[in-house]
Amino acid sequence: KAGVTQTPRYLIKTRGQQVTLSCSPISGHRSVSWYQQTPGQGLQFLFEYFSETQRNKGNFPGRFSGRQFSNSRSEMNVSTLELGDSALYLCASKGTGTTGYGYTFGSGTRLTVV
Amino acid sequence: SQQGEEDPQALSIQEGENATMNCSYKTSINNLQWYRQNSGRGLVHLILIRSNEREKHSGRLRVTLDTSKKSSSLLITASRAADTASYFCATDGETSGSRLTFGEGTQLTVNP
């Protein structure tokens, strides 16, 4: 079965702009989580969505937001981009009834803010 | 902020040798997971160990968990050049809900 698909793979934006990243989870998975990876801060949890509801949120400013659609696809949005938002953004999905199993990650979106 | 620390930060070995990476964490957990990341790409789940387990094996991987010391180790036996990657431990906390808290990672280089 298809894995977690993230689009686009690479993105270059200018400070002050906004950006939307997309994640399609594994078919049947209802939980989608987002992580930011930077050299300085490592891997940090952004938020998790389950059945179109935000179930958990990390410690990021309100410029970072997300949503999930009825087909479980998720988008995250970053407004008023700052240079420090340059990072690899990873999406992960998990099925219900999979306690004891790990998350499946996508290949990520590399965002560069200039 | 990171849950804990991994050591070493970098490890370089020869093919055929064993590689051991350690991870420490701070809070109570439901389980601890190990992931591999090849140069700037996505994370690949390797193995999960529950809080009530002490050791688990999967192929050339062996994971141990000591909840009293809040630490875990990942052993890769008979390493191969293809094992070159960054390895991260991640905890699924009792009180953190459905979120993973990652360690800082160990960069493993296996020389042919």
Q: Low-confidence runs of chain B (pLDDT<50, min 5 residues)?
A: none
Number of helices of chain A: 0
Oligomer: heterodimer
Strand content of chain A: over 45%
Mean pLDDT of chain A comes to: 93
End-to-end separation of chain A in angstroms reads 37 Å
* Radius of gyration of chain A, taken over Cα atoms and rounded to an integer in Å: 13 Å
Output the structural class of chain A. mainly beta
Topology:
The complex is a heterodimer of chains A (114) and B (112).
Chain A: E1 5-7, E2 10-13, E3 19-24, E4 31-38, E5 42-50, E6 53-57, E7 64-68, E8 74-78, E9 87-94, E10 104-105, E11 109-113
Parallel strand pairs in A: 2-11
Antiparallel strand pairs in A: 1-3, 3-8, 4-5, 4-9, 5-6, 7-8, 9-10, 9-11
Chain B: E1 5-7, E2 10-14, E3 19-24, E4 29-37, E5 43-50, E6 55-58, E7 61-66, E8 71-76, E9 85-93, E10 100-102, E11 106-111
Parallel strand pairs in B: 2-11
Antiparallel strand pairs in B: 1-3, 3-8, 4-5, 4-9, 6-7, 7-8, 9-10, 9-11
Keywords:
heterodimer; A: 114 residues; mainly beta; 7-stranded mixed beta sheet; 4-stranded antiparallel beta sheet; 11 strands; globular; B: 112 residues; 6-stranded mixed beta sheet
Describe the protein's architecture and organization.
The complex is a heterodimer of chains A (114) and B (112). With 114 residues, chain A is mainly beta. Chain A contains no helices and 11 strands. In chain A, a hairpin with a 2-residue loop joins strand 5 and strand 6 (53-57). The termini of chain A are far apart. The model of chain A has no long low-confidence stretch (mean pLDDT 93). By secondary structure, chain B is an all-beta fold. Chain B has strands at residues 5-7, 10-14, 19-24, 29-37, 43-50, 55-58, 61-66, 71-76, 85-93, 100-102, 106-111. In chain B, a hairpin with a 4-residue loop joins strand 7 and strand 8. Classes of the chains: A mainly beta (114), B mainly beta (112). Chains A and B meet through strand 4, strand 5, strand 9 and strand 10 of A and strand 4, strand 5 and strand 10 of B.
